[in-house]
Write a structure and sequence with these properties.
The complex is a heterodimer of chains A (145) and B (105).
Chain A lengths: L1 H4 L1 H5 L3 H57 L4 E7 L4 E9 L5 E10 L1 H6 L11 H13 L4
Antiparallel strand pairs in A: 1-2, 2-3
Chain B lengths: L1 H56 L6 E5 L2 E7 L5 E7 L2 E9 L5
Antiparallel strand pairs in B: 1-2, 2-3, 3-4
The chains are: A alpha+beta (145), B alpha+beta (105).
Chain lengths: 145, 105
């Protein structure tokens, strides 16, 4: 009773209001988090579905290449079929001595360009990392060309 | 009397604020549940389609229809010598693999 006559009494804020605000905050946080989690799950599912579709499209193309190779008189063929931005299907075929087609490789590989672009900025092994950082800072400040 | 009335007003206001916020939160939760069920369905559809495709590649006969819980997977051969896999849920297409080919080797 005494507390209500103090600061909160003028503003019309009691214990129930404080509880309501807390409850609303908790509800909002949990419901927003659930929505974000569900959206993240959905993105992941779609990415998985797209990757599977891309794999089967590349696999079908590789089968056609294999059939084409079997008809041709080539001794060996190597192809890389792009699947997604970061993955490709690499096949390597060779003609055996009896004329049948032998598969040397039929695997999903990481696309080389993407590997270089997303490489982590690790220390290359020349010079000290501290010295490099200092040199970079100086260049950024325009002290050194 | 005056204190009692202001307390009642506060309670009513609290209830209104809580009701509005609870409604919004329930709507958010329902939406999250719908999205979650959709993504679960898509993932299961992808697994079913992969199973059908790999079975066919391994020599299983076509056409083939498989029912799994609420999903229906259907594989049928196409004119070009390949196959197509479609997974539906209540008549609605959830996932499709456009072309599957058997390995000749």
């Amino acid at each position: 009773m005494r507390a209500e006559k103090g600061f909160f009494a003028g503003a019309g804020i009691g214990l129930t209001s404080i509880f309501t605000v807390l409850l609303v905050l908790i509800l909002s946080v949990f419901s927003t988090l659930s929505l974000f989690t569900a959206r993240a799950d959905e993105r992941l599912s779609r990415a998985n579905a797209d990757a599977v579709s891309a794999y089967y499209a590349a696999d079908a193309q590789a089968c056609r290449i294999e059939a084409d190779f079997a008809r041709s008189g080539e001794a060996e063929r190597e192809e890389t079929i792009p699947m997604t931005e970061i993955q490709s299907l690499r096949i390597r075929l060779r003609r055996a001595s009896d004329g049948s087609v032998e598969r040397l490789e039929w695997s999903t590989v990481r696309t080389e360009e993407s590997g270089e672009a997303e490489a982590l900025p690790v220390w290359g092994g020349t010079g000290l990392p501290g010295a490099q950082r200092a040199a970079g800072k100086e260049t950024a400040n325009g002290r050194k060309p | 009397m005056r204190g009692g009335r202001s307390r009642l007003l506060e309670l009513v206001l609290d209830l209104c604020v809580f009701a509005v916020c609870a409604l919004i939160c329930v709507l958010l939760l329902v939406r999250a549940g719908t999205i979650s069920r959709g993504s679960e369905r898509l993932t299961r559809a992808v697994y079913l389609a992969q199973t059908l495709a790999e079975d066919w590649k391994a020599g299983e006969a076509a056409p083939r229809t498989v029912e799994e819980e609420e999903l229906t997977g259907e594989l049928r051969e196409t004119e070009g010598g390949g196959a197509e896999v479609t997974v539906t849920w209540n008549g609605e297409t959830v996932y499709t693999i456009g072309e599957v080919r058997r390995n000749e080797g």
